């Protein structure tokens, strides 16, 4: 019986030892596994740290590259702006030069005689003829059987004036327009025969007549006809004094002028810009200095 108990005790001791050994082995295995896990974790953390540092370096380099590109882009933009400004300045210079050339060419192509002060001041020689004359439509003439001419560039202004006057109920007719040097000489001779030296009060000598320019007309009305000495009393004359400047025409010889007697029928085209100045300042053509008048030659037909 005692042997049996001894055997059981030994058996239990062996089993317990086996259990302890097994437990220790399992715990060691688990401990080793834990050790490996922690080491791997450390390695992963270290790798992640290194990767983070590398990534931050790359991000920093990328940001630096962006800043450099931005600076280069700003410099390029500024360069483009400067180049554009230089091009604009150059273009403006070219346009200015072209404008100056155009003005010079325009002045060269514009007859400087058109704004000279004739009427005993400047002289037009017998060979002077306007660059281009055109016949005035007979419907605008007092004598439909006669032929009158006007400067080609004045025609449209004259027709506009006449049409507007008719529409206003104050119709005008042209009794005289362009006269050559010889025609003026013949006319003046006839006046001298009739009026003697008194003709000098109302008629210019040849070479001093504004009519030779081809830009001057004498008006009458259908009622007055050729006897236009009473033109001042007509509503047509009043209309001219209030509206002729809009079409570039100015009264050459107003009352108390220094050249001839008052001629309410005698109107000269001098350009809208110049006659507007005269109208606004209550002046007449012969009141202005010739040098000032000359500055308006460029715009006479504008």
From TrEMBL:
One of its GO terms (molecular function) is peptidase activity. Keywords: Coiled coil, Membrane, Transmembrane, Transmembrane helix. Residues 149-271 form the D-alanyl-D-alanine carboxypeptidase-like core domain. Pfam families: VanY. The chain crosses the membrane at residues 7-29. GO terms for biological process: proteolysis. It comes from the Bacteria. It comes from Candidatus Wildermuthbacteria bacterium RIFCSPHIGHO2_12_FULL_40_12. Residues 52-100 form a coiled coil. This is D-alanyl-D-alanine carboxypeptidase-like core domain-containing protein.
